[in-house]
Design brief:
352 residues; mainly alpha; two-stranded antiparallel sheet; globular
């Protein structure tokens, strides 16, 4: 019905606005956070505490000259122009299956809103997320190939190798969560983690599946190309890798996609292993007030892991590429397999 369409459009607009607004906020957090870790001041000229610096950066990117390399012609030009669009569209599209709050039967215009998730009827939410999210690597590969630049091409090749290595570990680490939940729906994953053990220990998946949680978080760092896994950029080796030849808003599209992917990755960590919008010992009121409380709980957890991304980036050194590959194949995948084997044994013995 038209009301259902309106509700869906409202959800899409709200989620898209939050994701796109989260990019300049995270840019400020990243810059101020790195300054704090390195004992610097960071941005402090534009607005109080430099809060308006992302606005100035956005104006700068929109007004910069948009250059296309002379050697980018024909099919390569099409791929060169397509790559940043793929990166941004895939980044925004992956969030539509993430439940970011609890809906206790709320209605809008006399119709049920269908939960705080853009696509509530997608029961195979986690499979959709992995399927669509894996398309993001095409943006990096096409950017590397279409730029007609050897540094960019090396960055794109590294991106594909890195994605294959860590996507396997990431997917296998989630198998244990799906086994315990008995569903591919992320809503069901969150609801399964509600409540406590022994009255005070949260039933979050991170407790019985700590190995799986650690494996997933490490793989997520690699999937989002963040330090210490940013070998696709590696300024000291590849200038800036796959987006060396991009400027203005085309470069900004890759930049925005990275931070949106960070938000989606942090949300996934929260949903799969840290109880989503649930919080033991906190009884949320009913109605819209309770729904907003669950959104606030979810947002606070996501904010913590976004800060964790920043903290790790400015604390750990970059891996060599051979170390990165060895970690993925020799450690991450075996640990992920060990996790779901442990979950299977624990379920068979009745502990989970």
């Amino acid at each position: 019905m038209w009301v259902d369409l309106i509700v869906t459009v409202i959800k899409v607009l709200v989620v898209s606005t939050v994701l796109l607004t989260g990019v300049p906020i995270m840019v400020w957090v990243e810059r101020r956070g790195s300054a704090m870790i390195q004992d610097r001041l960071g941005p402090n000229r534009v607005g109080p505490m430099g809060l308006l610096q992302p606005v100035v950066d956005a104006v700068k990117l929109m007004t910069k000259e948009d250059l296309t390399p002379e050697g980018v012609t024909g099919t390569n030009r099409f791929l060169y122009l397509l790559a940043p669009a793929i990166a941004l569209v895939v980044a925004v599209s992956t969030f539509i299956v993430v439940p970011f709050g609890y809906d206790p039967g709320l209605e809008l215009f006399g119709h049920a809103i269908g939960g705080f998730v853009v696509a509530p009827d997608l029961d195979l939410g986690i499979l959709y997320l992995f399927a669509v999210g894996s398309l993001g690597v095409y943006a990096l590969v096409l950017a590397g190939w279409g730029s007609n630049n050897k540094y960019s091409l090396l960055g794109g090749i590294r991106a594909s190798a890195q994605m294959i290595s860590y996507e396997l570990a990431m997917v296998i680490s989630v198998v244990g969560v799906l086994m315990v939940t008995g569903s591919f729906s992320l809503d069901d994953v969150v609801l399964h983690q509600a409540g406590t053990w022994f009255g005070f220990i949260p039933k979050w998946n991170v407790i019985p599946q700590l190995i799986g949680a650690i494996t997933f978080m490490v793989a997520v760092f690699a999937e989002t190309n963040r330090l210490p896994f940013d070998m696709v950029e590696a300024e000291a080796e590849l200038v800036v890798g796959y987006h060396t030849e991009y400027s203005s808003m085309r470069f900004a599209s890759f930049f925005m996609a990275e931070y949106i992917n960070m938000i989606t990755a942090s949300s996934l960590i929260v949903v799969l292993f840290f109880g989503g919008w649930t919080l033991p010992g906190i009884a949320t009121p009913g109605g819209w007030l309770g729904a907003l409380a669950t959104i606030g709980i979810f947002a606070a957890k996501v904010a913590f892991f976004l800060w964790f991304f920043v903290w790790v980036r400015w604390t750990l050194p970059r891996f060599r590429f051979d170390q990165l590959m060895a970690l993925g194949w020799k450690w991450m995948i075996p640990l992920a397999v060990l996790n779901f084997l442990w979950v299977g044994v624990a379920m068979a013995l009745g502990y989970l």
